[in-house]
Amino acid sequence: MPETLSPAARTPESTVPPQTFWSRVRSRVFRPWMVKFCAGYIALVCLIAIFVPFLATGKPYTCIIPAHHGVPMRREFPLFRDLTSVSWVLLVVAAALAAQTGYGILTRRLPPDLRRRRRRIWLAMVTVAAVIASVLIVTLHHNQLDATNYRSLAAHGEITHAVFAPIPWGYAAMEPLGKNLINKLPSQRHWLGTDGDGRDVLSRLLWSTRVAMGIGFISQFIALAIGVMVGAMTGYFSGIVDILFMRLVEIVESIPSFFLILTFVAIYGRHIFYIMVILGVTGWTGYARLLRAEFLHLRQLDYVTAAEAAGLPLWRVLFRHILPNGVTPVLVSASFGLAGAVTIESSLSYLGVGVRPPTPSWGEMLNAAGNPATVFHWWQALGPGMMLFITVLAFNIVGESFRDTLDPRNVNAG
Amino acid sequence: MTSYIIRRLLLMVPTLLGMTFMLFAIVRFAPGLREAGQANAVQGMMQSKQAQKQEQLLVAERLHLVDKNGHPISLPMQYVLWLKSTCEGHLGTSLEYPEPVLKLIEQRLPVTLTINLISMIVIYLVAVPGGLLAALYRDRLFDRGYGFISLALYSLPAIWVGSSLLGFFANPEFFNWFPAAGLHSTNTESMDFFQYIGDYFYHITLPIVCSTYAGFAFLSKQVRGSILENLGQDYIRTARAKGVKGSTVMVRHVFRNSLLTLITLTGMSLPGLLGGSVIVEQIFSINGMGRLAYTATLARDLPVIQTVALIGSVLTLLSYLAVDICYAMADPRVSYA
Q1: In B, which residues are within 8 Å of A260 by CB distance?
Q2: Is A46 inside any structural domain?
Q3: Radius of gyration, CA atoms only, chain B
Q4: Over the stretch A260-318, which tens digit does the pLDDT of each residue have?
């Protein structure tokens, strides 16, 4: 292939602003419609995880309590009063993300340098505000247990003008025992049927996205943090540090991981934060290995020597100069890691050592679909199974597309 | 070569020590260890306070928590004692069953091993030709379709597939085609050899399906990648240029070089053969290694937990070493001077 381009071919390129590595990768990764669809699906699941208190709950958004016994009529907002601190923090996170994206759209006409600087300042401000808001919520907000059955109140006319959520069932709301509404097939009342406790399957299905996405993202974040630290250290300093830390990697890798996780959870308890930490602590070795290989190669390059010679502090050389150039394969494998974490969480819940009931999880719902050898409530298994399958597949497809794009063997394919 | 092997073996020593220490620490710092002696609750209720105390002391002594006189032992000493008895081959007695751990493993291992071997053969029979064809028809319909289907199979959660297979195909409500649990019918004594084998395969069909479908993607992706890499090499072009037949080039030059990847992958998967899948064994009620480990963790049967993890870890380390040595012997280009 001739290396020189004709002048005609070169001119239009020179007018186009130079593309960054990331924007080029992004445009190529998301070109197939399948990958676009999967990314959209993941975004949708994340949105559901954040906004599920507004989608599936027995509390009305708003209702009017008519005047009685001399108490004047008043308007109430039971749903907002009932939001837990986790829900509020998630809303803050969503607002911060929206603010950052919105600012990016607003400033898109600015020159790139100025835009980058402004967005960085904006990001810092948004982050600080979100952290302060979250800390305030966690310290000041008290979760209230509102056991009022607003549906029956509305039916009896004790509240009026009630606006209910699209799926008017909370994840733990049970149908009364006497009504024979347990283990029912999908119907008008319950779109995906009910489970063995008379709870709405669809509502539990949607609430489960919280556990799945929360454990997936946070555990992989922990794993990435450990893996990046260890990988950077071992790759940059060879010698004794490398030998010591690589032994640590080998130790963690050699112990069968699912078994290790099972032991940890069985011994230390089933709290959701424990599960996140345990999945993170056992899942970092792959990231460390990948990053070590990148650092071994990158630290010999001239620009790193230049950065060292300029007298930059070590952390700046490691994390501002080397890391951004070597982090790509790690992020690719984080996509597969996320899929793996979602699978492991569901498996733990299926075995009965996952998150505590009544918190719903897809694995627990599959388990609750019945002792399959005798009675198998297929409608209880279909929803969680499909959700689990599509979520894991979506992460895998996005990861696969990333890997194919970045694979040096495929350079001429794109 | 010899010096390479010796160096690798020496590097394994600190890894092994660290690993045993980690297993020891996980179990020792677990809350509620002191009550481990009360694992057998029913037995505990039947006994007097005195006998209960005696039992507890006995268990504590077996776990090297106290010495013969009942005095507590310091943590580092506990580790040394445990390591010593492990190296001597005394892997302890289960707290749950009145049997030595090794005997339990001896009973469970053949079950897991046969199932895993059969699944591995099935996986290789499908994935290697699949990967080969995908590489030959690169970016054509077969490659794309096979890649997508195997990735989708890989993403299917085993808990869903397993429980659905059981719910639909071993259920009088739907299709009662397969047995729901176990590995043998009850009347195995009256069967001749072929009937026995047939009965065995009838029982393991669903578990085999459940433990194979996810394995195709990884293996065929690796085979495809390594064949594509070999196809681009200079020596392939040379072979073609000097007029070697196309099929000979594929078999002698491409496929034989790709076998090196297969050595690595096979070696890496060897420890998994003994491990057994907790999920599959739990769903289909097969008493294999995975189920042993799972019930042990739930019952906090510490000797069993430690031994199963120890065996798995040592085998993993050994097979990594074996892979590297095999690789060096099979490929003359690799030198570890």
Answers
A1: 26, 309
A2: yes
A3: 25
A4: 888 887 777 788 888 899 899 989 999 999 999 989 888 889 999 999 999 999 888 98
A85-103 burial, b at 16+ Cβ within 10 Å, e below that, comes to ebbbbbbbebebeebeeeb
pLDDT of res. A302: 92
Residue A163 near residue A62 (C-beta atoms within 8 A): yes
Residue A249 distance to chain B (closest CA, Å): 9
Do A329 and A406 meet the contact criterion of CB atoms below 8 Å apart? yes
Identify the closest residue of chain B to A372 by CA–CA distance. Answer: B167
For residue B283, the chain A residues in CB contact (below 8 A) are 372
- CATH number of the CATH domain containing A42: 1.10.3720.10
Q: Please give the average pLDDT of every successive group of 10 residues along chain B, which has 337 residues.
A: 83 88 78 51 54 66 68 78 82 77 88 90 93 89 92 92 86 77 73 81 88 90 88 88 88 84 82 79 88 85 83 86 81 67
Residue A369 lies in a domain: yes
Residues A115-171: tens digit of each pLDDT: 889 999 999 999 999 999 999 999 998 887 777 888 888 888 888 888 888 888 888
Domain span holding position A224: 35-56+180-414
Does a structural domain hold residue A192? yes
Runs of H (alpha helix) within chain B: 2-28, 41-46, 49-62, 75-87, 101-136, 141-155, 158-169, 193-212, 216-231, 234-241, 246-248, 256-275, 278-283, 289-299, 302-330
Asked if A268 and B14 come within 8 Å (Cβ–Cβ), the reply is: no
Note whether B163 contacts A264, CB cutoff 8 Å: no
Domain count, chain A: 1
Q: What is the pLDDT of residues B171-206, one digit of tens each?
A: 777 787 787 777 777 776 777 888 888 888 888 888
Q: Do B159 and A264 touch (CB under 8 A)?
A: no
Residues of A in contact with B157 (CB under 8 A): 343, 346-347, 385, 388-389, 392
CB contact under 8 A, B275 and A259: yes
Two tokens at B89?
């081959």
Amino acid A408: pLDDT: 66
pTM: 0.87
A103 within domain boundaries: no
What's the gap in Å between the CA of B156 and the closest CA on chain A?
Answer: 5
